[in-house]
């Protein structure tokens, strides 16, 4: 449902893995902590960041969705091909001539 509704309203849709550790990953440093029971509503990462369980998970899901959409949903990953400048596309004058003439092939 989210996918077609996003398409209807011109929004970007990205799907992340259902086992992505959104709750137990620190959105500040990326460290993955132990699983947390549902009654744990906030936790402190060893890096010092204090997280609300749901806000941290939302930040991680958003970051994962954006990372996913940049690579698999049509965004340009590699630079677009550009035609070579004329001086690079040509060959050195006389290069082919000298190689061919050395092998006895007539040069036109
Ligand atoms: Zn952390």
List the helices and strands and how they pair.
Blueprint: H1 2-8, E1 42-44, E2 50-52, H2 53-72, H3 86-89, H4 95-103
Antiparallel strand pairs: 1-2
The structure holds zinc ion.
Zinc ion binds at residues 26, 28-29, 31, 45, 47, 49.
What does this molecule look like?
This protein is mainly α and 108 residues long. The protein has 4 helices and 2 strands; from the N terminus they run H-E-E-H-H-H. The N and C termini lie far apart (68 Å). The structure holds zinc ion (ZN). The site of zinc ion has 7 residues, from loops.
Work out the number of β strands. 2
What small molecules does the structure contain?
A: zinc ion
Class derived from helix and strand content: mainly alpha
Q: What fraction strand?
A: 5-15%
Low-confidence stretches: none
Please summarize the sheet with the most strands.
Answer: 2 strands, antiparallel
Our count of helices gives 4
Percent of residues in helical segments? 25-40%
Q: Tell me, what's the shape? A: elongated
Give the averaged pLDDT, no decimals. 81
Order of helices and strands: HEEHHH
Rg, please?
28 Å
The CA-CA distance between the termini, in Å, is: 68 Å
Read across the widest sheet, the strand sequence of neighbours is: 1-2
């Amino acid at each position: 449902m989210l996918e077609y509704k996003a398409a209807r309203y011109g929004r970007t849709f990205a799907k992340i893995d259902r086992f992505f550790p959104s709750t137990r990953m620190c959105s500040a440093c990326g460290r993955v902590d132990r699983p947390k029971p549902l009654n744990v509503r906030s936790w402190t990462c060893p890096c010092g960041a204090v997280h609300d369980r749901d806000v941290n998970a939302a930040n991680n899901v958003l970051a994962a969705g954006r990372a996913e959409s940049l690579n698999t949903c049509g965004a340009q990953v590699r630079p677009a091909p550009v035609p070579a400048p004329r001086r690079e596309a040509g060959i050195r004058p006389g290069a082919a001539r000298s190689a061919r003439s050395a092998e006895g092939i007539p040069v036109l």
